Every structure is written in structure tokens, then in C-alpha cells.
Amino acid sequence: MDDPDYYIPAAAMGIALAFKLPGMARAWRDPLLRSVCALLALAGLVFFFAAPPTIATVNRITGVANVSAPLVYCLLSAFSASCLVLIVNWRGGPPEQTRRVSRRWIAGYGVVILALVVLFSLGDAPVERLRDLDTYYATTPYIREMILLYLAALTVAGVAMTVLCWRWSLQVRGWLRIGLVIIVVGYLFNLAYLATKFAAVFARWGGRDWDGLSTYAAPVLASVGAQVSAVGFCLPLVCQRLADSWSTWTTYRQLGPLWRELHTVTPRHARAVRIALWSPAELRVTQRESDIHDGMLSLYPYFSPEARASAYDAAVTAGSDPAQAQAVADAAMVTLAVRARAGDPEGKIMDSAGAVTSESTEGPRDLVRMSIALRQSPVVAAARGHAARPESDFHERAR
Fold first, then answer.
1. Which of 17, 46, 181, 271 has its CB 3.0 to 4.6 Å from that of 40, i.e. a possible disulfide?
2. pLDDT-derived band of residue 75, with 50, 70 and 90 as boundaries?
3. Residue 170, SS3?
């Protein structure tokens, strides 16, 4: 691998982390968000410190030959733990159980990191090796054990991640399942990386030279595995966010007919509220729902329970289910009330007491269904015709 093959992924992880940090500052108690940020930070550090130029620089600054080796091995071990903790928190479950499992993984890999440092300090590795330390010192006391320990730790994490993600993928559907399968594929590359490393080290023990597997093949497999796994982690989150955004904008658009119907009767102080063009879709939906409720509140004196009941019967007769019929009835009552309000410019009905009955206001209304019915339902269209031609029989026309 060339030097950019290390630094480009490191920069990408750093940029992704920078986008996550504001959310982390707002919700630092969220264990899933903390796990994501830890994984991004450690992944970026692994790529950065594993680059040969960085290895040489760290060795030169510290004055200790090959001190970068335990540093990179410790970062790899911490990264493995962060992946396991992320999966545990991502999958969810009882909070106490999730915390307990996460702490066990962190503690276990914390012991591994401490052992790596101790083994390096006990060993002797005076000749600087930027790319082939694993095989060059494969038979050196203590350094040998350090190499085996980090490879074993990564193998445990790789097998655990593969098993956990595969089992979970069998229980879910959609983008989450696709993401988990991609993570499994990425970790299969990681396990292939570990297999080449073990093969090269064991070959050294047997007096054979398979260093090319460790020096050239293994880094490529590790890079591919890391990038594929990153796609698996990001894909469900990104796609879910896009799906949520699409759903929110769809709701905003679907509320349009009802919002426009009530716009003329919405109190002026409510209509004066403006939000910025860059405001999130959720805020826009909330404002639109608020405007609708304000408009309906001003229409309550004009609501007709009789017209609503007639529209409900007409909708049921036309084949609507009860929920849809209720939305059609509410929409018909609203459109009649709007026109009744327009015919009462002095607000005489609004000023009269007892105009609102409990039957006309009780229970929540499905605003989206009402808005769709306002635009599409022939029953509501008949109600408009009834308002324009009072002499007609609304119930018969709605049929």
C-alpha cells in the first residue's frame, strides 16, 4: 500500500468525526453516539499511525526504535473493542445489560493493551522495521508474544463481530440487514488479513520465508475490510436518515391542502410566525400542524356535528373503512365551517356561547388523512357543492 492509501482513509474518518462532534456535544450521554465517535476516532488514528512515514516519525521523535509497533497494535485493539461496543449499543436491549457487556469488552481489551506495552518493554527490537516488523521479529522473545497477542485479540474481535452481525441480520429486515451483511463481508476480509499474518509468522517459525503475505497482501486485505465495514456501519444510518427525511417532507406536502384551506381563518398572530429557509423539515411540519390547529380552533363555533355525521355515513356507504371515513367526515365538516366562517364576517356566531359541542371537538384527528381527503374525496367535494348550493341534499349528492 502507498502512503496515500493510509492518509486518505484517516482524513475521511476525521471529517466524519467532525460532523458528529456537534451532536456528541449536545447528547454526550447517548452511548450509541459515543460509540460511533470512538470508532471514527480510533479508525482514523489506526490509519494515520500505521502509515510508514508516520511510523518513522514517531520512532525518531521518541528515540525508541519500533515504538510505533505497540502504539499501532494498541490502537488496533482499542478499535476492535470500539466495534464490539458499537454493535452492542446499536442492537440495544436492557440498558444495564448493554452497559455490562460493553464494560466487559472494554476491560478485556484494556488488559490486552497493557500486556502489549509490557511485552514490548521486555523485548529487544533495535532494528527499525517500517513494514515487516511482524515477520522480522517473529522469533524474538517477548516481541514474538506481543505479535501473537495482538493478532489473537484481533481474531477474537473479528470472529465475534462476524457472528454477532450475522445472527442479528437474520432477525431484521431492510437497510439494517443489508448493512449488517456488508459488515460481515468486511470482517471476512479482516479475517483473511489475520490469516495471512499468522501464516507469515508461522512460516518464519518453520524456517520459511512467506514475508510477502504479511508485507504486501495483508495491508491490502485490511484496507479493503476496513472500508467495506465502514460502508456497512454507515449505510443503515444514512439510509434511515434519508428515509426519515423523505417521510417528513412527504407529511409536510400532504398537509398542504388542509393548511391552505385553513389559511384564511388562521389567526393573524399565528400566520405572522416565519421560519428560516434552512429550517429542518421536522420544524416545518410542526409549524404547519400548529397553523392547522390554530385554524381549526377558530372554526369550532362553525363546526356542524350533523354535517360530520352525514359525511361519515356517506363515506362508509362509499366503501371507506372507519378511520378513513372519520377523516373524510372531519374534512367535510372543516370545509363547510370555512365557508360558514366566510359568510359571517362580523363573527356573530363566533361570539355566541355554546356554539361548540363536545361531540365536535372530542378526540385527536388524523391531519394527514384529513388533508388527503380534502383534496381527493368525492364526499368532501359534495360538501363544497352543498355549501355553494344550500338547497341541494348533501347526503344524496355525497352518495
1. 17
2. very high
3. coil
Domain 4-244 has CATH 1.20.1070: yes
Three-state SS for 347? coil
C-alpha cell at 397: 349528492
Q: Is 49 helix (H, G, I), strand (E, B) or coil?
A: helix
Tell me if 243 sits within 8 A of 281, measured CB to CB.
no
Distance CA 374, CA 384 (A): 10
Separation CA 236–CA 213 (nearest Å): 34
**C-alpha to C-alpha distances, 53 to 3, 58, 77, 275, nearest whole angstrom:** 7, 9, 21, 50
Domains of the chain, residue spans: 4-244, 256-398
pLDDT band at 355 (very low <50, low <70, confident <90, very high): very low
Tell me the whole-structure pTM to 2 decimals: 0.72
Q: Looking at residue 346, what is its pLDDT?
A: 63
Burial class for 112, CB neighbours closer than 10 Å (0-12, 13-18, 19+): buried
